[in-house]
């Protein structure tokens, strides 16, 4: 069994359909514009609760979820808006959820940190760091025992690698050869602590070798590189060769949460990563390598903007849960 750690920094040349490429672009734009609108709604005091946003990490979510089938499942984190939109949840059901409406994806009872829709293959996100890892292993065990060809993909941050749940989950998955793709979105910071202060070996994918399965480090801001790595990982899982650990190198453009000004991120580091913005990079690839016109990309942006404006207007007046619904959707 291969346990090598590799670095895939660029997508290899491949023949992608124009519709597929445009959909990758649209999904990333949708995530970025959704997050930007939500940020201002919170700053204005229009929206309740709190947020942990993912601007800058769009390629990770979109690239992985594009490689999954509709009946595959993902687990997510408190920074899960991008995962949800990438897995097929609509901006409307998510915006309704953020406004606490009964028409939200979790009927107004989950909020920002617990987005999900089981019918679309997303378990409501778990805010506990590393909490989705053993759950993904459990789902993958169920898939294997049924048996089905389904795969579980588990998103988590670099900070979760220090949790016992990570080591227990990946060890169990390796022992039982479970169909689960562990997706570490390595944005260099666990809250405000740089990864170099908590790990001697900062290559997260190297952990896979110690448990006897394959790990790979990928440029997480290159959506095609992420997609191709995820396609290979998912194929390994479906063929009984799983699990796989994908480390996606990326960077969040916002604070850990809405009250975080990011003073711990050095300016030079921020500038370097901002220059590698996944949306700008992919738009350039579409124009220069795949023959898209700038007007086509502008049309996508306009369509997404209109979708989000409509979602906000609907969510503001969407019905709230009633007192009688307090005991519904509760399981002992």
Q: What do we call the CATH homologous superfamily?
A: Thiamin diphosphate (ThDP)-binding fold, Pyr/PP domains
The CATH architecture term is 3-Layer(aba) Sandwich
Determine the number of helices (DSSP H or I, runs of at least 4 residues): 11
Helix content: 40-55%
- Secondary structure class reads alpha/beta
Our measurement of the CA-to-CA distance between the termini, rounded to an integer number of angstroms, reads 42 Å
Main beta-sheet strand count, sense and barrel state = 6 strands, parallel
Strand content: 5-15%
Could you say how many structural domains there are in total?
1
Class, according to the CATH hierarchy? Alpha Beta
**Total strand segments:** 8
The CATH topology comes to Rossmann fold
The helix-strand sequence is: EHHEHHHEHEEEHEHEHHH
- Large-scale geometry: globular
| Main β-sheet, spatial strand arrangement | 1-7-8-4-3-2
Return the average pLDDT rounded to an integer.
94
Please mark out the parts with pLDDT under 50 across 5 or more consecutive residues, or reply none: 1-6
User: For the CA atoms, what is the radius of gyration?
Assistant: 19 Å
Could you describe the 3D structure shown?
There is one protein chain. With 332 residues, the chain is of the alpha/beta class. It has a single domain, classed as Thiamin diphosphate (ThDP)-binding fold, Pyr/PP domains (Rossmann fold), CATH 3.40.50. Helix content is 42%, strand content 11%. The protein contains eleven helices and eight strands. Strands 1-7-8-4-3-2 form a six-stranded parallel β-sheet, with helices on both faces. The longest helix has 26 residues.
């Amino acid at each position: 069994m291969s346990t090598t750690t590799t670095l895939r920094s660029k997508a290899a040349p491949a023949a992608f359909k124009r519709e597929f490429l445009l959909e990758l672009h649209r999904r990333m734009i949708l995530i970025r514009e959704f997050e930007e609108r939500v940020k201002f709604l919170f700053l204005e005091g229009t929206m309740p609760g709190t947020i942990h946003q993912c601007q800058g990490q769009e390629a990770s979510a979109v690239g992985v979820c594009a490689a999954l089938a509709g009946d595959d499942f993902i687990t997510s984190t408190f920074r899960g808006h991008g995962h949800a939109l990438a897995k097929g949840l609509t901006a409307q059901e998510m915006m309704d959820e953020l406004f606490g409406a009964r028409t939200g994806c979790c009927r107004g009872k989950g909020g920002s940190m617990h987005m999900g829709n089981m019918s679309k293959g997303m378990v409501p996100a778990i805010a506990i760091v590393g909490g989705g890892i053993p759950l993904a292993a459990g789902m993958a065990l169920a898939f294997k025992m049924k048996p089905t060809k389904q795969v579980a993909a588990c998103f988590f941050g670099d900070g979760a690698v220090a949790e016992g749940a990570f080591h227990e989950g990946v060890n169990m998955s390796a022992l039982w050869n479970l169909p689960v793709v562990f997706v570490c979105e390595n944005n260099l910071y666990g809250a405000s602590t740089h990864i170099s202060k908590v790990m001697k070996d900062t290559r997260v994918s190297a952990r896979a070798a110690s448990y006897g399965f394959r790990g790979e480090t990928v440029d997480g801001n290159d959506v095609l590189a992420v997609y191709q790595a995820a396609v290979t990982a998912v194929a390994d899982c479906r063929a009984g060769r799983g699990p796989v650990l994908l480390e996606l190198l990326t960077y969040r453009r916002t604070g850990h949460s809405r009250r975080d000004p990011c003073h711990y991120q050095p300016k030079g580091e921020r500038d370097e990563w901002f220059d590698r913005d996944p949306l700008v990079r992919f738009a350039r690839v579409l124009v220069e390598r795949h023959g898209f016109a700038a007007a086509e990309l502008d049309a996508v942006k306009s369509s997404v903007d209109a979708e989000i404006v409509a979602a906000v207007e609907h969510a503001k007046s969407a019905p709230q849960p009633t007192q009688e619904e307090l005991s519904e959707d509760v399981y002992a």
